[in-house]
Amino acid sequence: MTFSDGLGYLNYSIPDGITFTGDGSIGGITWASFNISQIAPSTQTWIFVNATTKKCSNMNVNATVATGCFGVECSKAEDSSYAIIKDPVVQINVNVPDPVKMCQGNVISNMSIIVKGETSIYNLKVNFTPFAGMNVTGIILDGTMISFDKDANGNVNFTIDTLKVGENIIPVFNMSLLSCCNLTPSQAHAKVSYQTSCQKAEQSGNFTLEKYSNNLQVLYPRLEISKTDQYVSASNKTTVCWVINVTNNGDDTAHAVNITDTLPSNTVFNNTNCTNFGGSGTSGDPFWCYIGNMSHQSDGENHTVSIQVCANVSHCTTRTTNNATVCYGCPTADCNCTIGCNSNLSYLYTNPYSYILNVSTEPVGTCEVKNVTVLINNTMWGNASAKNLRINITLTNGLRFYNSTNAGWWVSGNTTQVNFSTADNTTLIWNESTQGYGILNLTFQVRLWNPDNLCTGEEWSGMIKTNLTYSSTCGNVLGGSGNAYNESSVAFKKPNVSIILEPDVANAPFIPLGEIMRWNLTINNSGNGTAYKLNVTMTLGNGYSDISAENLCGAPASVNSNTITWSDVNITEFSNCTANISAKNAGVPKTVNVETHGKCCGDGNCCNHSDSNLTWDYGDVPYLVVLYKIPSSNTTEPGNFTNFTVKVQNPSGQNVTNINITDLLPSGWKFNKTLNE
């Protein structure tokens, strides 16, 4: 039997009747020989030969059998085979320890390595990276502490020579916390390298496996702190008390809980219900209250602590800050640190705080009265009322306050009506003794005016300036700027009136005597404000009679001689009014004039900016008038001739050309000829 260089002859096992005759090695090829005395017909025999693996390739074995007798070889047979290397199956797992708490001491974790399959593994090297913030202090294997190496990053390494098939090892890692104040959820990591028997034989190569654990759960306290704002009067050195609430909404007990509080600068510490406290409450020496341990919600115990801190108010200040902080940590000697803090900034108001919340306006047009509402908000509670409240409201650019019997200089303040005083027609001053917590609603009315006694001037908007001042209980005068001063614009709506007068195209400009002349009158308002109570006058020159006119936007027409008048015509913005007018040509007409005039709004103080004028002059238009048609005789006999004379006059100042005259003869008459033209 001959073994290739991947295998090496080792030993044998043979039954009786077979003799080992020798073995050897030539050039890395090993062999062994045996002698079988005889094999009976239809029987078999066997030889067991063991070989060792020398490398993981060229692992063949060849067997040659020769038979004969008396020194003569009679027959020969050969066969060969090869060795199969089976790799091991290795499994590793890294376990996660129980949830870790802040300020905790040692932590234990383990991993497992299992070898399955049909072969063992060799030169097993284990590299273990602990959870973040932890340090491996020892490794226990089968109840015995083993030696290991550790690099600068805290990774540990150890080696096991052989791990046989079916064996399971569980290294246990003892770990301590590098800092019990700085734990975060993390993963441990294991890296394992090993050799199979083939790799060991060749002294080359290895297999590597890696495994991460699940995240380590870290239990944290979570402290929340609250402290409400306070609103008090500063008179008589008022004492103000705060309640500070601290709640642990986390999943672990908070240790070394300490509350600190820097009181407002205008207060002096008075007392507290905390049993372990100190500090004066100033910025350099804050008040502190030591609580110690605080349970968490899952404990089923009280997880909220409340303390009261009282201080005396020393002087008035509109608003001062009050910052309370709670911290926790680890108080033990080997782990003394602060882990986390949470703060709450509150305010102390010893002065009232009033401001202009809103000034609401709407556009105002001619002859219109609009409401303006001023909202004053006082955010104080209790005794912090605004004293000597003074509101000064000034109008600009043609705005005036409206004053009538039904709506005088008054405002609605909560549920009472109070009187304004007026410096002039553009200024209101309102004085009120106090204003408590809430909103004061001031309402007044405005209209338009300008020095020309027209409802609007050149401006397109006016301004409402509101100034608020008030006093505190200490007598400080506050307001007058910032959100206690407001400027709000009021848009002006202006009418823009124009006249369009169009003669009827069917009978203009040639108007026979005695015929009806017709006009279409349009009063157009292209402005953005209503034209109120217009007086529209249409004057016809001499030579017109039988004048009639339609209503104009509902206003009836009044005819007096040659004048048509429409009174109190209202035309809304961007609209118009139309009317048809007719008159008989009774002479020689010359002009037609239309005028609009604004009328006072009714209170004697307001006029429309809406005057306009339009004149139609027929003196500049050529036209003809048929003066008469008369016969030469008033009586005649049949068969006789009668001459008719037609007289046409041009009263205009321009020539008339291309004249056609049409005449209808009486019944029974026949045209003869034209005598002359």
Count of spatially separate domains: 6
Briefly, what CATH class of the largest domain? Mainly Beta
Average pLDDT over all residues: 80
The backbone outline, from C-alpha atoms, is elongated
Distance between the termini: 160 Å
For the biggest sheet, the summary is: 7 strands, mixed
Total number of strands: 54
Helix content: under 10%
Number of contiguous helices: 1
| Strand content range | over 45%
CATH architecture group name of the largest domain? Sandwich
Which residues sit in consecutive blocks of at least 5 with pLDDT less than 50? Answer: 404-419, 450-457, 602-609
CATH topology of the largest domain: Immunoglobulin-like
Radius of gyration: 59 Å
Structural class: mainly beta
Care to give the gist of this entry?
By secondary structure, this protein is mainly β.
List the main descriptive attributes of the protein structure presented here.
single chain; 677 residues; mainly beta; Immunoglobulin-like; 7-stranded mixed β-sheet; 6-stranded antiparallel β-sheet; 1 helix; 54 strands; elongated
